[in-house]
Structure formats: structure tokens, C-alpha cells
Amino acid sequence: MCGRFSLRMEPQDIRQNLEDYNLHANEWIHQDQFVPRYNVAPRTHAPVIRRLDLGNSIRSGAEPSEGSSSTQLSMQTMKWGLVPHWSKYEDKTLNTINARSENISSGGGMWNSLRGRKRCVVICQGYYEWLSKGKEKIPHFIKPKSGHLMLLAGLYDSVDLQDSTYTLWTFTIVTTAASNEFSWLHDRQPVILSTQEDLDQWLDTSSQRWSEDLAQIVSRAYTKDSSLKCYQVPKEVGKIGTESSSFILPISERKDGIEAMFSKQRQALAVVNKSSSTSMAKRKRNSDRASSKSTEITLTQTAEGSDDDIKILEHPSVKKTKL
Question: Do residues 234 and 268 both lie within one domain?
């Protein structure tokens, strides 16, 4: 699955980086709703790319018409977690942050009405996945080695909810079976659109139909695994609302990572050594006091003895040395 991703880039940088994929969006609808985040969680807003008709008003959010050849791409900030167009209220218990590729291709459920004409591309720098290790869940970050943006296959929808004064736009991320290289981490992964051909086909909704080519795109795992890097990141990323640049860095590169761990170990060792030294000093002081007390007792006992003994103590014999 894909339950968290990162997009900590300013709008102008996102636009510039999209040129690596030959994607040129003339307009960014609801740009003001986007907040750059290292920790993008469900029900927060993020930009997607979708197709629009040139003949229709972009601001109206009009859907592409069948057979239209005059099209352009637009970016739009949407809420993560798809709310179907027939909804009267936003059901926050609905788990629609991901859409399984198998269900989309089979045409079942809510995806059937979206797969033909409401496809989009979700923009991110990389995504987080949690490795289950017993009762522990260890977060990892997966991103392109090239440093380019990662583009994910998505679906979107819009709805006018009851008692709402605006149209709600939402999206979901398409997932597929994990590739062999990342199956150790999780059995699912997002569908990554890595080629120009895949991007063009996914964004081309002019026919408003689902095709075998599209089914192939979402069913195959990412085939360029060697161009991705995966590493463990801090557990703090699991808490929604937390933000830190360290979330997308390997633990070994964090200022508070390995160095902090060794520092804590050194501090702990210093405490142990100090405690040990203090204990030894205390034992020595106790020993000295005990020895002093023993001497006092001996002297007292001797003083209570014969006069000869006292004389010996007061006038110790000195061995004469021949000159």
C-alpha cells in the first residue's frame, strides 16, 4: 500500500522538476491549498496532474469530452482519500487512499466509473512504507536515485456534498503487487509511471474508456527497481502532523541518528564508569575508616595492658648501625 509520501518542494520547483518528464501544466488550480510537507498523510492536500479540455473553462473543473483532440494538462490540489461523486457526506471511515489495480481492471465497485475518464498523476519525491518485524513496524523511504520526482498513477473524483458551499476534489493512489526487489518490505507498492509512454497513456482520457494497455500499466510492478533507493528512516514519521527534514534522510545520515546513538552509549558508559568509581571510592573510604577504627582499638587495648608494653609503644627500639 501507500499510506504516506513526501513532497517538500515549493510550487515553482515542482513545475521545474516536472519538465524532466516533459509535463507542462499551464495552470495550478487551488494552488493556495497546497502546503509543502515531508510527511503527507491521508486527508491532507497534495497536487495531481489531470487532463482538461481547452474549449472548457479550466476554473470550472469541466471534465474532458469524448473524442476531443484539443487538450492540455493542469495541476490541481486535491484531498487525499477519494470521496465518490454520489456521496452526500464525507465518510471519514471510508478507506479509499489506495485503489488496488486488480479491482480497477476488473471494473468492480466505484472504480468502474472513474477508470475511463478520471485518471490523474500524483506528484511526490518518494513514499514511505513500514516493515513489519514482529510487533514492531519500521518505516522506510523509497525514492528515485536520480533525485527526480516520483510520479504515481491515481484516480480522482469531485462531489458537491450536502450543506457544503464548494466542490470537494479528492484522489486515490493506485497500487499493485510489489516487485521482487521490494517484496521483503511489503506485498504492495504504488504504480510508478516512469516512462513517457506510460504517462501519456495514463493521462489521455479522450476515449473515456479503459483499455488493455492501461490494464498492463497498473498490473506490472515497477521494472526499474535498480533506479530506486530504499532505506530506514525515523519512527517519528509515523505520527501524523509531525514535520522534519530528517524524515527523508537515512538514519545513518541524521545529525541525531547514529552519532546520537553512539553519544548516548558513551554517556551511558560514562555514567557507569562514574558510578563504579564512586562506588570504589566509597568502599575505600569505608575501608580507611574501618582500618583507622581498628588501629584505635589496638592502641586502646595496648594502653590498657602492662607498663612494659606502654614503654615499647612510647620508646620504640632503634637498631644501632656500625660506622
Answer: no
- Regarding whether 302 and 232 lie in a shared domain, the answer is no
What's the CA gap between 150 and 80, in Å, rounded? Answer: 17
Q: Give this prediction's pTM.
A: 0.75
What DSSP character marks residue 217?
H
DSSP conformation letters of 27-40: EEETGGG---EEEE
Pairing of strands 126-133, 136-144: antiparallel
The tally of CA atoms less than 13 A away on the side-chain side of residue 119 is 30
Query: d(Cα 153, Cα 276) in Å, to the nearest integer?
Result: 60
Please give the DSSP secondary-structure letter assigned to residue 184: T
Q: Any idea what the CATH number is for the domain that residue 234 is in?
A: 3.90.1680.10
- Judge whether 199 lies within some domain: yes
Q: List Cα–Cα distances, 243 to 35, 246, 307, in angstroms.
A: 12, 9, 87
- Write phi, then psi, for 234 (nearest 5 degrees): -65, 150
pLDDT at 301 over 90: no
Number of residues in the chain: 323
Please, what is the Cα angle at 141 between 34 and 180, to 5 degrees?
125
Domain residues for the domain of 98 are 5-239
Shared-domain flag, residues 66 and 134: yes
Render pLDDT for 34-82 as a digit per residue (tens, 0 to 9).
Answer: 999 999 999 999 999 999 865 444 444 555 544 444 468 999 999 999 9
How many domains, in total, are found in the chain?
2
H or E, element range at 263: helix 258-303
- Cell (9 digits) for 146: 536520480
**Cβ-proximal residues to 44 (8 Å cutoff; 6+ apart), any chain:** 35, 37, 79, 80
SS3 per residue for 37-52: EEEECCCCEEEEEEEE
The maximal CA–CA distance of the chain, rounded, in angstroms, is 130
Measured at the CA of 106, the angle between CA 102 and CA 109, to 5 degrees, comes to: 95
Q: Give the residue among 42, 36, 40 at the shortest CA–CA distance from 8.
A: 36
Give the N- to C-terminal CA distance of the chain in Å, as an integer. Answer: 101
Looking at residue 204, the DSSP 8-state letter turns out to be: -
